UniProtKB/TrEMBL annotation:
Organismal lineage: Bacteria, Bacillati, Actinomycetota, Actinomycetes, Kitasatosporales
InterPro entries: CFA/CMAS (IPR050723), Methyltransf_12 (IPR013217), SAM-dependent_MTases_sf (IPR029063)
Keywords: Lipid metabolism, Methyltransferase, S-adenosyl-L-methionine, Transferase
Organism listed in the record: Streptomyces tibetensis
Gene3D superfamilies assigned: Vaccinia Virus protein VP39 (3.40.50.150)
Protein name (Swiss-Prot/TrEMBL): Class I SAM-dependent DNA methyltransferase
Cited PANTHER family: CYCLOPROPANE-FATTY-ACYL-PHOSPHOLIPID SYNTHASE
Pfam family, one: Methyltransf_12
Gene Ontology MF annotations: methyltransferase activity
Amino acid sequence: MRATEPAGNRSRLLHQVRYAVRHPERVPAHARRAVRDAWLRLRHPDHISYYRAVMASDAARSTEAAVGHNPSREQWARIGRMQFDYLVGHGLRPHHRMLEIGCGNLRAGRLFIDHLDTGHYYGIDISPRILLAAQDTLVAEKLQPKLPYLALAGDLTFAFLPDAHFDVVHAHSVFSHSPLHVIEECFAHVGRILAPGGFFDFTFDRTEGEEHQVLHEDFYYRTRTLTDLAAKHGLDARFMDDWERLPHRQSKMRVTATRDRARTVGA
């Protein structure tokens, strides 16, 4: 039985009414969030700036919730371990160079850093406050000798990163918060930074019905939409069926450069 089921359209009024009837205690918080998000969209018309402001607002209210400690530190650690075990099982080796998009406060990154050779982990995020939390994680885990790189990013063009450098690129819970033009920007440029035989894993919120978004924070896509978009930029994308057996609500895809189809790391 699949752990991950495709989402229905959560933006429809009927869904929202049913949800409110089942969970009336959550209605005030949702209403406050809707008003807050509408105000932030007026102030920040481009999505990256808008979502950076969302993260700053969440972190100001609760840093732990903003970096994935909600509902618990144990859940935070479990999801990080699940990401790590999956990638190691799919061929991530200590000598590989890894880029993590949306590294957050290193929920999985702390495990990747410890596993990889010194200097082989590069994490980027759009939130300065969350990157400071990532530094706190490095200190708590005593990972300073591994010399990871942590950088603030304003887009997904990767213009400041070298060609053909990363064996593994990883983005967990990034595209679930991204409109299609942001995902396409990533697809248009990620092939340049992938090393020969490298791959790019990402999760997304999957629907088999109408694609939609909720509060411009959560986006739901059909698998075919993303595979077609990847192909437009010379990338092969395949659905990772074995991830579906894990206890996580998002689905996962793997992207490789079409030219590297026969020599993918961890194939």
